[in-house]
Design brief:
By secondary structure, the protein is mainly alpha-helical. It has a domain of about 45 residues. It has a two-stranded parallel ribbon. Helix 1 runs antiparallel to helix 3. It is elongated, with a radius of gyration of 19 Å. Its main location: mitochondrion.
Protein backbone atom coordinates (compact mmCIF):
# COMPACT_ATOMS: atom_id res chain seq x y z
CA UNK A 1 0.00 0.00 0.00
CA UNK A 2 1.12 3.55 -0.64
CA UNK A 3 2.43 5.58 2.26
CA UNK A 4 0.21 8.53 3.20
CA UNK A 5 3.23 10.87 2.97
CA UNK A 6 3.85 10.01 -0.69
CA UNK A 7 3.35 12.77 -3.22
CA UNK A 8 0.86 12.03 -5.96
CA UNK A 9 2.08 12.18 -9.58
CA UNK A 10 -1.34 13.26 -10.83
CA UNK A 11 -1.68 16.83 -12.14
CA UNK A 12 -3.43 19.34 -9.88
CA UNK A 13 -5.88 21.84 -11.35
CA UNK A 14 -5.96 25.03 -9.27
CA UNK A 15 -9.34 26.71 -9.13
CA UNK A 16 -9.69 30.51 -9.38
CA UNK A 17 -10.63 32.32 -6.17
CA UNK A 18 -13.89 33.51 -7.72
CA UNK A 19 -14.98 29.94 -8.51
CA UNK A 20 -18.01 28.93 -6.46
CA UNK A 21 -17.36 25.43 -5.15
CA UNK A 22 -20.87 24.09 -5.10
CA UNK A 23 -21.44 20.37 -5.65
CA UNK A 24 -23.26 21.07 -8.92
CA UNK A 25 -20.37 23.07 -10.33
CA UNK A 26 -17.85 20.48 -9.22
CA UNK A 27 -19.95 17.84 -10.99
CA UNK A 28 -19.90 19.99 -14.15
CA UNK A 29 -16.12 20.30 -13.87
CA UNK A 30 -15.79 16.54 -13.51
CA UNK A 31 -18.10 15.92 -16.49
CA UNK A 32 -16.15 18.41 -18.60
CA UNK A 33 -12.87 16.70 -17.70
CA UNK A 34 -14.25 13.28 -18.60
CA UNK A 35 -15.71 14.62 -21.86
CA UNK A 36 -12.38 16.18 -22.85
CA UNK A 37 -10.64 12.88 -22.14
CA UNK A 38 -13.09 11.01 -24.36
CA UNK A 39 -12.57 13.55 -27.15
CA UNK A 40 -8.82 12.85 -27.03
CA UNK A 41 -9.42 9.09 -27.08
CA UNK A 42 -11.80 9.30 -30.04
CA UNK A 43 -9.41 11.59 -31.93
CA UNK A 44 -6.61 9.04 -31.47
CA UNK A 45 -8.95 6.26 -32.60
CA UNK A 46 -9.83 8.15 -35.81
CA UNK A 47 -6.17 8.83 -36.56
CA UNK A 48 -5.37 5.14 -35.95
CA UNK A 49 -8.06 4.07 -38.43
CA UNK A 50 -6.76 6.56 -40.99
CA UNK A 51 -3.22 5.25 -40.43
CA UNK A 52 -4.40 1.66 -40.94
CA UNK A 53 -6.10 2.61 -44.23
CA UNK A 54 -2.98 4.47 -45.36
CA UNK A 55 -0.83 1.43 -44.58
CA UNK A 56 -3.01 -0.88 -46.70
CA UNK A 57 -3.47 1.65 -49.50
CA UNK A 58 0.23 2.49 -49.90
CA UNK A 59 1.63 -1.03 -49.55
CA UNK A 60 5.43 -1.10 -49.78
CA UNK A 61 5.67 2.71 -49.74
CA UNK A 62 3.87 3.07 -46.42
CA UNK A 63 7.04 4.24 -44.62
CA UNK A 64 7.30 7.29 -46.88
CA UNK A 65 3.61 8.02 -47.37
CA UNK A 66 2.28 7.39 -43.83
CA UNK A 67 5.25 8.49 -41.72
CA UNK A 68 3.81 11.86 -40.72
CA UNK A 69 0.51 10.30 -39.76
CA UNK A 70 2.27 7.63 -37.68
CA UNK A 71 4.30 10.28 -35.82
CA UNK A 72 1.12 12.28 -35.15
CA UNK A 73 -0.61 9.16 -33.81
CA UNK A 74 2.32 8.41 -31.50
CA UNK A 75 2.22 12.00 -30.25
CA UNK A 76 -1.49 11.66 -29.44
CA UNK A 77 -0.91 8.41 -27.56
CA UNK A 78 1.91 9.86 -25.48
CA UNK A 79 -0.14 12.94 -24.55
CA UNK A 80 -3.12 10.84 -23.47
CA UNK A 81 -0.99 8.77 -21.13
CA UNK A 82 0.25 11.89 -19.35
CA UNK A 83 -3.22 13.21 -18.51
CA UNK A 84 -4.59 10.61 -16.10
CA UNK A 85 -7.12 11.51 -13.43
CA UNK A 86 -7.15 15.15 -12.44
CA UNK A 87 -7.15 16.24 -8.80
CA UNK A 88 -8.92 19.49 -7.95
CA UNK A 89 -7.01 21.64 -5.45
CA UNK A 90 -9.34 23.20 -2.87
CA UNK A 91 -6.66 25.25 -1.06
Amino acid sequence: MADSTEVSNRPVVPLPNSFQRTPAELAKLKDMTIRNGWVKVMKARLVREELRECYYREGVNHYEKCGDLARYYMKLIREDRKVGPIVVDFN
